[in-house]
Design goal:
The complex is a heterotetramer.
Chain B lengths: L1 H28 L6 H18 L4 H30 L3 H23 L13 E4 L2 E4 H23 L1 H11 L1 H6 L4 H27 L6 H15 L4 H21 L4 H16 L10
Antiparallel strand pairs in B: 1-2
Helix pairs in contact in B: 1-5, 1-6, 1-8, 1-9, 1-10, 2-3, 2-4, 2-8, 2-9, 3-4, 3-8, 5-6, 5-8, 6-8, 9-10, 10-11
Chain C lengths: L1 H23 L4 H25 L7 H17 L5 H23 L4 H21 L1 H4 L14 E3 L2 E4 L7 H25 L1 H11 L1 H6 L4 H27 L9 H14 L6 H15 L7 H15 L25
Antiparallel strand pairs in C: 1-2
Chain D lengths: L1 H16 L9 E8 L6 H20 L3 E3 L2 E11 L4 H14 L4 E3 L4 H6 L1 H7 L2 E3 L22 H16 L3 E7 L2 H16 L3 E9 L7 H8 L5 E5 L6 H10 L5 E3 L6 H7 L8 E4 L9 H14 L6 H4 L1 H13 L7 H10 L1 E3 L8 E5 L1 H4 L4 E2 L3 E7 L2 E8 L3
Parallel strand pairs in D: 1-3, 1-4, 4-5, 6-7, 6-8, 8-9
Antiparallel strand pairs in D: 2-3, 10-14, 11-12, 12-13, 14-15
Helix pairs in contact in D: 2-11, 6-7, 9-10, 13-14
The chains are: A alpha/beta, B mainly alpha, C mainly alpha, D alpha/beta.
């Protein structure tokens, strides 16, 4: 557990961020920061505003008020692709992959930001474009090998076993060479063995120099992996600190106990 | 001006009734029913034959149109849409299928009912004049009937078991399925209802406007406009869209007597959708 | 090996398309005309096919074709430009308009996009009717001249259409434009651009998460789509020597979709095959006269019921292993 | 690629293989090209049914005699869906595949204009039911107007009403398509030259409109003496009339196109009494026995009589009789036909008074490019049209 080095400038800073849907504030005046090299988790009961916060941070939603800074630069309410260009890349839950492409192609496409050729260059198949293509394939293979998908890289993504899909999602995120990777529930639906493996994987990514923010339900995994944790309830930040601090926080315990009965309703979605 | 507003209301109420059926199908199965205008025409022809030809009372004709069209709706779902949608969930398939059914219904209507414009004698004759506004009785009857149908439809959706099941399906058909709604059966019911609404709209209007086999496409296009204004898949949106289009159309004809009205409506629609992509009341897509 | 095969196939195709067909129909101007029309319609449909490829159902292609047609007619008749300049100008104008319209509208997805593009066709028709100082209103622009000669340094590259058999001249011009269009489409699909378009088709959010400028790519796709429509429309109008608000209608817009679907969305050639099969059989069905739209609609419904992936997905035994199936269902 | 090739190959061969049925000896084919589906389907269908009914009668009598030989008359009908490009391919098909040189139709300006280059190149005559003067004035010379144009009927009707009903003001409402708008513009010009005061000439409604309240309420407040429904389709006319009356319109309503009494009776009823239109040339007062026979046959072919058929029956009749006068070579060579047109004349077989049936139009087109269909102006009364007066055009 590395304590947050408060001296250097934080990689991402969220200040007084608010998002309203109609009259309802899904995220209400939330402020926190993440330092380079950190793993920060955002947790909270259902409906606490975690995924809204996640989308705001990755520019997939426009904020109602408040700011998001990345390396000191205001990136609030930009387009997602601009955020990606600056180095902020998010992943999705497992089903969001290119289902009709092979695993390898999924990752090759995701190398988009690294291409040097222009769009006309692609069209006419210039030398640069062809070189890019070769490099991307190599790099994609490397990423897939690293994430343990080397054996299935030529399988069409929709036919991959469930466990591999999430890793593929992360591989897609990695391909864009992020400085900050936002992971959307990376451990959901995993058994303890798989979770342990996934935790090692996420740590490994951090060790490659990528800062990580993750939104997660699995408490034990969160406590295990996080450097720091931000807790939301009803859109507001109610606590922030190291896992040990959070585990003993009265407010957090109250928030979870009071809502426990509702945490079941997630299981009823059948959507692929 | 009073006349213009009355015209707008009158047109708007009819439009709302037409749009209801389209939006119902859209919310239930995410299908854009191109044949909606053709179903309307078919409903009109049934009434023409029962009321105009067989000389039965108008309400019998209305009932005949409703039942015939409900049957056609069931057949559509059972023989066309269910098999296609079971296999392919792509929007393209269902859309082209419905474009195909639109052409089919139109050509069948042409073959069976002929190319002529058909009308029936007015159900009620006479005109009220209220403060300079001419209000023909026939039109009041149409407005009243349309309004009744809409109220009946809304009550049905809100307070009966099938209505609630349909609404659950529109919300989320998988969850509805989990909750024990027989979605296959209710999809048929949904189609029957939607086609019936189109048929009733057609039938109500025959004594006023008459009907001919070529009307369908333009009615469908207008219905699409209403649904885009109001927001697809929401009952309130269909009603609002219909009224708004009716009034805009009436105002347009008043202020731009040339052919510009619909050009302006279309351009306005593009601008409107750029600002409010989901229409007035639509759910996010 | 694969390359040799492709080259062989391509040259055989060109042989049939550019030599055999014109020779077979040398004395039948009507049939040559029908084949020319089919070529151009397939070019316009190819634009719709590309929109399918990025996951949008474009029901406004008739409108874009009408814009192209009018642009060419106005450039030729009002500004006195040569057909060849007008052809390029029409493409350019259509592209500019598609970008202006596309920027707001491409944000709409699914059925919404289809409905609004459907209205575009009507908008184009009504605009052609109302802007009468430019378009001559409902009377249309008539008596457009045939394309003139193109000469470079005294060498006649293309003869004056009036001086040769115009049916042949139009056939070859149409075939040339169509080949050019489909070659471009082939390149787009088989280059990195194609990967990006496919990523858009499957999931726009995911694509933007790794830095793809989704709005820009969508506009690019629509611009290419509109370019095909503009060029096709300009050619068509010149071939007919007149343009009216009804030259391309709502009905045409739906037919373009059907052509693509009939051929198959999984292959670049889908639009080509679909247009030729449907348009030509349509011409042959003319004898059945009033039942023709009925038969047509039954084909359409039958397709959806039994052949959802298009004609090119059929694998007759003598073909060996057909082309790999690409697209079955998208969740 | 292989499949693309195979498909292209197959379709080409099939397409090449489908050959037009070879014409047997002594068959004279006449084409009908017009709109036979969609909202205006009745226009083209009436042309077709007329030609088919007339041909049936002729063929039962052993054919039509030209140059001492009897020809069986065969009608080839093509639906152009009111679409100029379909009309062009249809015309090419009639000319090159069916080897036809005489085409009845099309029904509207855009389609009629679109086929002009085709018929000129292919050497064919068309008889359009569209009014654009460009079709009939030089350099065009292959189209013959098959009916009375609105700009011919309009002034006659306006003048009659000025003299007999004392109208002073006039207003126009038109359908928003080329045909109607052109007719309106012609009508406005004619009215102006008659010194009528034009109160409204911009109001239009969309094709497919079923509710005419919005468009009518504006125009009715202007209280014109005469309200002209320019180019009104049979489907729209009764609704326009009824709406105008419901809105309290007291003036006279008229149109310059043919209308269908049955539809008017069904939809407008009494409201339509006094409505003036140009009729099919077959009102009971003037029609001959031959017309009665034709009407029976028409009903057999089409299911029911349509007033427009009274006008459209003339096309086939005059083509055949002109061919008879011009001789058998004219079947292939339309220049012979055109020469014969200038002198051709026969007693009108469908009218009792036996006025001549010939080619007219010199004041309008500077050449004879119109069939001398009698101009019957009708007034609607109690469910049917009564002849108001029978005029003629030079």
């Amino acid at each position: 557990m590395t304590p947050m080095p408060m001296t250097s400038m934080p990689l991402m800073e969220v200040k007084n961020l608010t998002k309203r849907f109609g009259g309802l504030a899904a995220v209400n005046d939330v402020t926190f920061a993440v330092a380079e090299g950190e793993i920060l988790s955002v947790i909270g009961p259902n409906g606490a505003g975690k995924s809204t916060l996640f989308k705001l941070a990755s520019s997939f939603l426009a904020a109602t008020s408040g700011k998001v800074f990345f390396k000191g630069e205001d990136i609030t309410s930009q387009s997602p692709h601009i955020a990606a260009r600056k180095g902020i890349v998010r992943t999705f839950q497992e089903t969001t992959i290119f289902r009709n492409m092979t695993a390898l192609d999924n990752v090759v496409v995701a190398h988009h930001l690294r291409s040097r050729a222009s769009l006309p260059g692609f069209f006419f198949g210039t030398k640069t474009a062809r070189e890019d293509e070769g490099r991307f394939r190599e790099s994609a293979s490397e990423i897939l090998d690293y994430l343990g998908l080397g054996d299935v890289k030529d399988m069409v993504a929709s036919t991959l076993p469930h466990g591999h899909l999430r890793a593929l999602g992360i591989a897609i995120g990695m391909a864009a060479e992020p400085q900050l990777l936002l992971l959307d529930e990376p451990f959901a639906g995993m058994n303890s063995e798989e979770t342990a493996q996934a935790i090692r994987m996420v740590r490994g990514i951090r060790d490659r120099g990528v800062t990580i923010i993750l939104v997660e339900h699995d408490m034990s995994a969160v406590m295990n992996i996080s450097d720091r944790i931000v807790v939301l309830n009803f859109g507001k930040k109610i606590a922030e600190g190291t896992p040990a601090e959070i585990q003993n926080d009265e407010v957090v315990i109250e928030a979870y106990l009071g809502r426990e009965d509702e945490s079941e309703d997630r299981t009823c979605t059948l959507k692929p | 001006m009073g006349q213009v507003l009355f015209n707008g209301m009158y047109t708007g109420v009819q439009y709302s009734l037409i749009a209801l059926g389209l939006t119902l199908i859209f919310s239930l199965m995410n299908v854009l029913n191109f044949a909606h205008g053709q179903l309307y025409v078919l409903g009109g022809f049934v009434t023409y034959y029962v009321y105009g030809g067989m000389k039965l009372p108008f309400f019998a004709a209305l009932l005949a149109s409703a039942l015939t069209l409900a049957a056609v709706g069931c057949l559509f779902q059972i023989f066309f849409f269910r098999p296609v949608m079971r296999r392919s969930v792509r929007e393209e398939s269902s859309m082209l299928l419905s474009a195909g059914t639109a052409m089919m219904v139109e050509s069948l209507v042409l073959i069976f009912f002929g190319e002529k414009h058909r009308g029936v004698p007015a159900v009620v004759n006479g005109v009220y004049e209220l403060g300079g506004v001419f209000v023909p009785k026939g039109r009041l009857l149409v407005m009243g009937l349309s309004f009744l149908c809409m109220v009946a439809f809304i009550l049905f959706m809100r307070y009966t078991k099938p209505g609630r099941a349909l609404r659950a399906m529109a919300q989320d058909s998988e969850t509805a399925c989990l909750m024990g709604v027989n979605t296959a059966r209710y999809a048929i019911l949904g189609w029957a209802l939607a086609a019936m609404l189109a048929g009733i709209a057609g039938a109500i209007l025959v004594p006023i406007s008459g009907v001919n086999s070529g009307l369908g496409n333009w009615i469908s296009i207008k219905t699409f406009i209403m649904v885009m204004i109001g927001g697809a898949g929401v009952i309130s949106g269909a009603i609002a869209g219909g009224l708004v289009l009716g009034i805009i159309e009436s105002l347009g004809y008043h202020f731009f007597p040339g052919g510009e009205t619909y050009l302006i409506i279309f351009v306005g629609l593009i601008v409107f959708l750029a600002v409010r992509p989901n229409g007035l009341m639509g759910k996010a897509v | 090996m694969a390359k040799v095969k492709t080259a062989l196939g391509a040259s055989l195709f060109l042989l049939v398309y550019l030599v055999l067909i014109p020779w077979l129909f040398r004395d039948q101007p009507y049939r040559l005309g029908v084949l020319t029309t089919a070529s151009v319609l397939s070019l316009i449909s190819a634009g719709v096919w590309l929109m399918f490829y990025i996951g949008r159902i474009n029901m406004g292609q008739g409108g874009f074709a009408l814009v192209g047609g009018y642009a060419a007619a106005i450039l030729v008749s009002k500004l006195g430009l040569s057909f060849w300049v007008a052809l390029i100008g029409a493409g350019f104008i259509t592209v500019v308009i598609s970008i202006l319209v596309g920027l707001p509208l491409l944000r709409l997805k699914g059925v919404y996009f289809s409905m609004i593009t459907l209205s575009l066709t009507e908008t184009a028709r009504l605009a052609a009717q109302s802007l009468s100082s430019l378009t001559n209103g409902t009377k249309g622009i008539l008596n457009l001249p045939l394309p003139g000669a193109v000469e470079i340094a005294g060498f006649t590259l293309i003869p004056d259409f009036a001086s040769v058999d115009k049916h042949f001249a139009f056939y070859f011009l149409g075939a040339f434009l169509t080949i050019l269009g489909f070659a471009a489409l082939y390149r787009v699909v088989n280059s990195r651009l194609g990967w990006l378009f496919r990523s858009l088709q499957q999931n726009e959010d995911l694509a933007s998460s790794f830095g793809v400028d989704v709005p820009r790519l969508r506009v690019i796709a629509l611009a290419i789509c509109a370019l095909f429509a503009g060029i096709g429309g300009a050619f068509f109008v010149t071939m007919q020597q007149s343009v009216y608000p009804a030259t391309f209608t709502f009905q045409d817009s739906t037919y373009f979709l059907l052509y693509c679907f009939l051929g198959g969305l999984g292959s670049v050639w889908g639009a080509f095959v679909g247009t030729f099969v449907l348009f030509l059989s349509f011409e042959m069905l003319q004898g059945l006269n009033q039942y023709q739209p009925l038969i047509y609609s039954l084909i359409m419904i039958g397709m959806m019921l039994w052949l959802p992936n298009g004609l090119l997905s059929i694998k007759p035994p003598f073909f060996g292993p057909g082309e790999p199936k690409k697209e079955e269902a998208r969740p | 690629m292989k499949k693309v090739l195979a498909v292209l190959f197959a379709i080409t061969l099939v397409f090449a293989g489908v050959s037009a049925a070879s014409a047997a000896d002594k068959v004279l084919k006449i084409g009908v090209l017009g709109v036979m589906s969609g909202p205006a389907a009745s226009w083209g269908l009436v042309n077709r049914y007329c030609a088919e009914a007339a041909a049936e009668i002729i063929n039962e009598q052993g054919g039509f005699e030209i140059g001492g030989e009897k020809y069986e008359i065969q009608i080839v009908a093509i639906d152009d869906r009111n679409d100029p490009k379909v009309a062009v391919s249809g015309a090419e098909r009639l000319i090159y595949e069916e080897k036809i040189h005489y085409i009845i139709g099309p029904n509207i300006d855009p389609t009629s204009m679109a086929i002009v280059p085709v018929i000129e190149k292919g050497g064919a005559i068309s008889i359009p039911y569209a009014f654009s003067k460009k079709l009939f004035t030089a350099p065009a010379s292959n189209s013959i107007l098959g009916m009375i144009a609105s700009y011919q009927a309009g002034p006659v009707i306006y003048k009659y009403l000025m003299e007999n009903k004392g109208i002073k003001t006039i207003a126009f409402v038109a359908r928003n398509d080329s045909e109607s708008l052109n007719q309106r513009d012609e009508g406005v010009e004619a009215a102006k030259s008659l010194q009528l005061e034009v109160l409204a000439d911009k109001d239009t409604y969309e094709p497919g409109t079923t509710d005419f309240f919005p468009v009518m309420s504006g125009i009715v407040t202007k209280k014109p003496d005469l309200l002209v429904l320019a180019g009104a389709a049979p489907a729209d006319t009764p609704l326009l009339i009824k709406t105008a009356r419901e809105l309290g319109f007291k003036g006279i309503l008229s149109t310059e196109t043919a209308q269908d009494a049955k539809v008017i009776a069904e939809l407008a009823g009494e409201a339509a009494d006094g409505f003036i239109s140009v009729g099919g040339a077959s009102t009971p007062e003037i029609r001959s026995a031959q017309m009665e026979e034709f009407m029976k046959r028409y009903e057999k072919v089409a299911g029911e009589w349509n007033d427009e058929a009274g006008t459209k029956v003339y096309a086939l009749e005059i083509i055949l009789n002109t061919l008879k006068q011009a001789g058998p070579e004219a079947i292939e060579d339309i220049s012979k036909f055109k020469t014969a047109m200038d002198t051709f004349s026969m007693p009108n077989p469908y009218l009792k008074d036996g006025r001549p049936l010939h080619y007219i139009g010199i004041p309008y087109f500077q050449q004879r490019r119109q069939i001398s269909v009698p101009m019957v102006v009708n007034v609607y009364e109690g469910g049917d049209f009564k002849t108001l007066f029978v005029g003629s055009v030079e």
